[in-house]
Specification:
The protein is built from nine helices and two strands. It is mainly α. A hairpin with a 3-residue loop joins strand 1 and strand 2. Helix 1 packs across helix 7, helix 4 runs antiparallel to helix 9 and helix 5 packs antiparallel against helix 8.
Length: about 220
């Protein structure tokens, strides 16, 4: 029942493969917070059995990305303030470690530079959903500086949950625009090999971002 184009690598179980694809859909904004996931539709979309899909749903529910409501079904999670605080707590630990491990010659820096260029084009077009997606790619590349597949996997969950926070807002321009310049400055410090300055810049970035997101979430729910 599995389409050839959906067959995962031999070392990756099917459940993990499909869960990863759904996380990508969350990060790209294809799935909205609170949306109900049709078992029939999702199984057909991924060309998998319903039993396999239920395993995928269980995995993503354990990762706080989906919510199961008895007698109603499975829904995309809608993270609240407590989740935001914990997300940024995790980001500080992982991303500060990445910045402190950075080398000016690491290939991830080239990807980050390219991502910033794409951000500028999306900003000029007023495409803030795309700006947010590229910004997440930028910070995912930052974690690549650690050269740790385990940290990368953990950070994917953080990004997916964070996207579900941003997706609760109608207007995200004010949550993304100020941080484009901050990303540029942070990258410049990393390219110079100035990890002390980069660490401070990242601290300031995350504190400012966390406060902005929490304030926006409180306004949206008031």
């Amino acid at each position: 029942m599995i389409d050839a184009s959906h067959v995962p690598a031999e070392d990756q179980p099917l459940t993990a493969h499909v869960a990863g694809r759904i996380r990508d859909m969350l990060i790209s904004g294809e799935l909205s917070p609170g949306a109900k996931l049709s078992e029939q539709h999702m199984a057909a979309h991924f060309s998998i059995s319903r039993n396999t899909l239920r395993e995928v749903f269980r995995l993503l529910t354990s990762q706080n990305l989906l919510t199961y409501i008895p007698n109603r079904g499975v829904f995309v999670a809608t993270p609240g303030e407590a989740s935001v605080v914990d997300i940024y707590r995790v980001r500080r630990v992982i991303q500060k470690g990445a910045v402190q491990a950075a080398s000016p010659t690491h290939p991830a820096l080239s990807r980050m530079k390219d991502q910033l260029a794409r951000t500028g084009a999306a900003q000029a077009n007023g495409d803030w959903l795309k700006v947010g997606t590229i910004n997440m790619e930028f910070h995912r590349s930052m974690v690549d500086l650690c050269d740790s597949p385990r940290l990368n996997a953990g950070f994917e969950l953080v990004l997916a949950e964070l996207r579900l926070v941003f997706a609760q807002f109608d207007d995200t321009a004010h949550l993304h625009e100020p941080y484009i310049a901050l990303n540029k400055a942070l990258l410049a410090s990393l390219e110079r090999g100035d990890t002390d300055t980069a660490t401070k810049q990242l601290d300031d970035y995350l504190l400012r971002s966390e406060r902005s997101v929490l304030a926006a979430l409180q306004r949206a729910r008031s």
